[in-house]
């Protein structure tokens, strides 16, 4: 009888699991939904950011939607993306985090001439890495990104992890007036020397989010993308234990984040696996408490009242396959230090730097990139480097390097665990973050803060990767 009882339980568990699987479909999304050729039109449009009953907001949009269409590409296969500019403004597209040739990197004057209104440009590259990436303008970025030009780019793993569902949250931040329209005043100099243009309305996938409906017992892979101009977020999933499986698209050792908080500076991405272990029928807050005094509920996970789809969390492995990143040779690596300087200091004064508010190693490159930007330093093609990112300012900076992903080594000398790679790393005030990479991609690569006001007000430099140079 005992045996029968256990057998019955097992059968029941199997039945409910398979019922759940039938209901939800245990998905292995993967290459099947990918497509290597796309066409995107950048144009003015309208978006119902605050819901269908309020007046739509005038935006600039890729493919008529905010965010733009999510592009799915296959890893290691050539892709071709036509971008047509129907704005009244020059534009380019930067494929953030994709290791591609300099000519496809979207920096005006360095990678390509800007795409003039009415013109098109064909971006062609082969994404070497699977993961969560994104695309956005690198021309007049404050306005173009701030008015809605951003979209997710997902390079599919050849053999993805098994989950019930995949979700993507492209999080954007808007400064809206009471009539629902975007407030003017991009490039305010006072803001540029402080936290940047932080808005008053946060959207997920283009709307102030309604409840995210979930089912007890299901396993979800959630791709988080901070596509805001300046807002830094720290997300906590109340009642849940998210497991980080990738940072900036690059797989890491699966781990629960410290204090359960997922820190997302502008441009940063985190992939998590979330087992829905909450109670059927209940709602759980997802909170952004980066600024503890301004904590708010970003969205709620709303559980269906139905019984869990399975009695225990899935036991399937969640470690993602590694990408073909070159491993830096730390024994032979040369060290270069980038000192981040400027900004409004605690006492209200600002360092004297003329028109720029920020600098790297005493030099300020402003704007979005243009021809003739002299390199801050030259790196030898194929050699390993450690970059020490030293923040001498009173503000945090998510520092992005184009054309490469780097291993995050340490913060103030303390090793960073879990084999984390990134293309945008968060550097706290008075902190030095060491990152390492192989300079294997020739070209003039931007390194800049992704708080867009900081970038355009001087927190930007060029690293030249080439033969024979020394900086
Ligand atoms: Cu910054």
Describe the structure.
The longest helix is centred in the first third of the chain and has 23 residues, at 2-24. The chain folds into three domains: 30-156, Sandwich (Immunoglobulin-like), CATH 2.60.40; 165-303, Cupredoxins -  blue copper proteins (Immunoglobulin-like), CATH 2.60.40.420; 334-466, Immunoglobulin-like (Sandwich), CATH 2.60.40. The strands form six sheets. Strands 20, 21, 23, 25, 26, 27 and 29 form a seven-stranded mixed beta sheet that branches. It contains four helices and 31 strands. It is mainly beta. It has helices spanning 2-24, 141-146, 189-192, 452-456, and strands at residues 37-47, 57-62, 71-74, 79-85, 94-96, 120-125, 131-136, 151-156, 165-174, 201-204, 212-214, 219-226, 233-237, 243-247, 250-255, 261-264, 269-275, 283-288, 296-303, 334-342, 358-360, 377-380, 384-391, 397-401, 406-411, 414-415, 421-422, 424-427, 432-438, 443-449, 460-466. The structure holds copper (II) ion (CU). The site of copper (II) ion has 5 residues, from loops.
């Amino acid at each position: 009888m005992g045996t029968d009882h256990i057998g019955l339980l097992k059968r029941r568990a199997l039945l409910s699991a398979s019922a759940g699987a039938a209901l939800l479909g245990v998905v292995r999304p993967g290459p099947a939904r990918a497509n290597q050729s796309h066409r995107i039109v950048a144009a003015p449009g309208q978006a119902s950011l605050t819901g269908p009953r309020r007046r739509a907001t005038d935006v600039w949009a890729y493919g008529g939607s905010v965010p733009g269409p999510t592009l799915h590409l296959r890893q290691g296969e050539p892709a071709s993306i036509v971008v047509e500019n129907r704005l009244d403004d020059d534009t380019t597209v930067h494929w953030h985090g994709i290791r591609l040739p300099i000519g496809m990197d979207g920096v005006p004057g360095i990678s390509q001439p800007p795409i003039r209104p009415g013109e098109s440009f064909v971006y062609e590259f082969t994404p070497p890495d699977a993961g969560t990436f994104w695309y956005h303008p690198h021309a007049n970025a404050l306005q173009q990104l701030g008015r809605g030009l951003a979209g997710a780019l997902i390079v599919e793993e050849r053999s993805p992890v098994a989950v019930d569902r995949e979700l993507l949250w492209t999080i954007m931040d808007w400064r809206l007036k009471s009539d629902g329209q975007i407030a003017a005043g991009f490039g305010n100099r006072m803001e540029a020397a402080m936290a940047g243009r932080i808005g008053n309305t946060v959207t997920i996938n283009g709307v102030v989010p309604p409840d995210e409906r979930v089912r007890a017992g299901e396993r979800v892979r959630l791709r988080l993308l901070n596509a805001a101009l300046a807002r830094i977020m720290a997300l906590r999933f109340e009642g849940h234990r998210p497991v980080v499986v990738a940072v900036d698209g690059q797989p890491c050792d699966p781990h629960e984040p410290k204090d359960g908080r997922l820190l997302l500076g502008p441009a940063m991405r985190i992939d998590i696996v979330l087992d829905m272990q909450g109670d059927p029928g209940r709602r759980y807050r997802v909170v952004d408490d980066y600024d503890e005094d301004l904590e708010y509920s970003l969205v709620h996970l709303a559980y269906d009242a139905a019984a869990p789809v399975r009695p225990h969390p899935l036991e399937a492995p969640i470690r993602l396959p590694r990408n073909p990143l070159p491993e830096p040779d730390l024994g032979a690596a040369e060290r270069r230090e980038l000192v981040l300087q400027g900004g409004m200091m605690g006492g209200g004064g600002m360092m004297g730097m003329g028109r720029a508010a920020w600098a790297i190693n005493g030099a300020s490159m402003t704007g979005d990139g243009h021809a003739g930007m002299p390199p801050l330093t030259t790196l030898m093609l194929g050699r390993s480097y450690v970059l020490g990112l030293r923040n001498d300012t009173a503000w945090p900076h998510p520092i992005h390097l184009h054309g490469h992903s780097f291993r995050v080594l340490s913060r103030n000398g303390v090793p960073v665990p879990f084999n984390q790679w990134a293309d945008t790393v968060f550097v706290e005030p008075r902190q030095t973050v060491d990152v390492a990479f192989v300079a294997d991609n020739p070209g003039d690569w931007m390194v800049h803060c992704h708080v867009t006001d900081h970038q355009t007000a001087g927190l930007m430099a060029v690293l030249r990767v080439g033969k024979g140079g020394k900086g």
